[in-house]
Amino acid sequence: MNEKRKGTALRLLGLILKGNGLRFTGVLISIFVSAGASVGASVFLESLIDDYIAPLLLEASPVFTGLLRALGMMACLYAAGILCSFLYNWLMVSISQRCLKQIRDQMFSHMQSLPIRYFDTHPHGDVMSVYTNDVDTLRQMISQSIPQAISSIMSIVVVFCAMVKISLILTATVLLCVGCMLVIVRHIAGRSSTYFVKQQASLGALNGYIEEMVEGQKVVKVFCHEEKAKEGFDRLNDQLFESAKNANKYANILMPAMNNLGNLQYVIIAIVGGVAALNGTGLTLGAIAAFLQLSKSFTQPISQISQQLNSIIMALAGAERVFTLIDEESEQDDGYVTLVNAKEENGELVETQERTGVWAWKHPHSDGTITYTKLTGDVRFYDVDFAYEEGKTILHNITLYAKPGQKLAFVGSTGAGKTTITNLINRFYDIADGKIRYDDININKIKKSDLRRSLGIVLQDTNLFTGTVRENIRYGRLDATDQEVEEAAKLANADEFIRRLPDGYDTMLTDNGSNLSQGQRQLIAIARAAVADPPVMILDEATSSIDTRTESLVQKGMDRLMHGRTVFVIAHRLSTVRNSDAIMVLDHGRIIERGDHESLIQEHGIYYQLYTGAFEME
Ligand SMILES: Nc1ncnc2c1ncn2[C@@H]1O[C@H](COP(=O)(O)OP(=O)(O)OP(=O)(O)O)[C@@H](O)[C@H]1O
Ligand SMILES: [Mg+2]
């Protein structure tokens, strides 16, 4: 086992023991008792035959009471063994399920703390498979392999002592046989372990493919690619078949091979024992019978451990992936400026617990003083550069300002960097160079959750969750009343169509709202942002799928809501941005023109050409 695997194994053990110390001790004791009971019963066989059965055979009128008592004791020993093995299996289920619940909890809560960059760089199918495949291999290992391994090791030790006590020659014979077995096991198991790892990889690939095809089913149908999709599936399925076949072929040979070797060993011991007894080594019939029983109990756990080896290797690889996810660096947040409810008293802002609708940035300074700045939604960029990947600068020297109450629009070709600018305002990503100030505070100083709370964002891709329409809108602000939810929907012009749904606001949405039209989904997303009632709103192509008449109604509603607040609008449809206070024309990550609609038109530049349709941006 390499060092990394060892570390993973130890860490896993720590997790299993955490909070389960008492239960685990119970498991160890029960395993010990159960192993001892089965050995005790085997050893007892010796005195049963030699002290009870053999003398009885020689008597003319045998009295069976002694024998019955002895048999009763043996039965008790077996019963104790069974009871204990039942107990440790039962305890182990509780330990393993607790441990898995804890691991899932840890993974999910940690995943929530990961930066967007993590999801950019890790295929979603992979992340999913950590929760399913890898956790499942762990379950198998914790609930089956670990107790089996402990029980096997204990049995081996106890049985070994008992064997040595009965006969040294026979013990040496058993060890020799076991040595031969191990050589064979190593040979077979070594072959299958590589196939087991391959089997896991093929399984992951197949899962990923199925997921992609389910998601993309419409595109598959549109391009009549059903056959092609099947071909791709067959290829992956064949790979899985090959690796699974090989892995299990070798693993399945192991069992009969071990059994036959065990039988062979039985015969060898019987012969060696018989010869030794005849040669007057003092070995009795009872001792040989007991030893034969013990030798079985000795080789059985060895073959069990060797069979568990593959699943342990697989589970450790799974545990490694689980820990990699848990160890993934969380989103850093050094912000110390927080957002608080405020009210004005004697012309000064003071913090308050009640919801006043007035918000302030609470800014602690190094000299111990605290200042409050009213949240107004003043956003300024100073010479901002940004790259998603090092060396590939996407935004160059972006300088802009949005005063409270202004509506700022970004237009420009696909891939120009419009969405990227908004990703920087809410700090999905951090800038490489330059400064962004929000209400004259460097946004790096603002606590991320508070920063995002102050922004209402309608993302370019709408995402609705499983739940009712009402719940989806309330996602914007969890303590919004039903009336506030409906008002937000009216504002987004969604109220009308929602009321026409079968259950109105209580209509269930599933699978990202697939029972709604694209435009309806956008209206719900707008209502969701509106219910949060934020001082700054970012609308990234929020109305792109909505007809122009509805759009203008939505805009009127938004203008009413956002009166005195800052709005960033991104749109390809230039009618959407016409009435903005300032329009920035972006090209390849640079602002190439800026001004309001009238002045840009007069300038006769790119915007003019875009607007009049005379120019297509590359
Ligand atoms: N997560 C990412 N990782 C790496 N590069 C990215 C990422 N997101 C966007 N880009 C790149 O950044 C550039 C700007 O993308 P952005 O999404 O800001 O464009 P956009 O102006 O919003 O385009 P559209 O009008 O199509 O929405 C593109 O060249 C794109 O390839
Ligand atoms: Mg975009």
Key descriptive features of the protein:
618 residues; alpha/beta; ABC transporter transmembrane region fold; Rossmann fold; 3 domains; six-stranded mixed sheet; four-stranded antiparallel sheet; 19 helices; binds adenosine-5'-triphosphate; binds magnesium ion
How many structural domains does the protein architecture include? 3
Largest sheet: number of strands, sense, barrel closure: 6 strands, mixed
What's the arrangement of strands in the largest beta sheet?
A: 10-13-14-7-15-16
CATH fourth-tier homologous superfamily of the largest domain: P-loop containing nucleotide triphosphate hydrolases
Low-confidence stretches: none
Helix content: 55-70%
The number of E-state strands comes to 16
Assembly category: single chain
Shape, per Cα inertia axes: elongated
Tell me the name of the CATH class of the largest domain: Alpha Beta
Radius of gyration: 36 Å
CATH architecture type of the largest domain = 3-Layer(aba) Sandwich
Mean pLDDT: 86
Ligands, deduplicated: adenosine-5'-triphosphate, magnesium ion
Helix vs. strand class: alpha/beta
* Residue share in β-strands: 5-15%
What is the end-to-end distance?
A: 56 Å
Question: With helices defined by DSSP (H or I, 4 residues minimum), what is the helix count?
Answer: 19
- Please name the CATH topology of the largest domain: Rossmann fold
Describe the structure.
The protein is an alpha/beta fold. The protein has helices at about 5-15, 20-60, 65-110, 115-120, 125-165, 170-215, 215-220, 225-280, 285-325, 420-425, 450-455, 470-475, 480-490, 495-500, 520-530, 550-560, 575, 595-605, 605-610, and strands at about 340-345, 350, 360-365, 370-375, 380-385, 395-400, 405-410, 435-440, 440, 455-460, 465-470, 510, 535-540, 565-570, 580-585, 590-595. The strands form four sheets. It has a six-stranded mixed sheet, sandwiched between helices. A four-stranded antiparallel sheet has the order 2-1-3-4. Strands 6-5-8-9 form a four-stranded antiparallel sheet, with helices on one face. Helix 1 (about 5-15) packs across helix 9 (about 285-325), helix 2 (about 20-60) packs antiparallel against helix 3 (about 65-110) and helix 6 (about 170-215) runs antiparallel to helix 8 (about 225-280). Bound molecules: adenosine-5'-triphosphate and magnesium ion (MG). Adenosine-5'-triphosphate (ATP) binds near residues 120, 388, 415, 416 and 460.
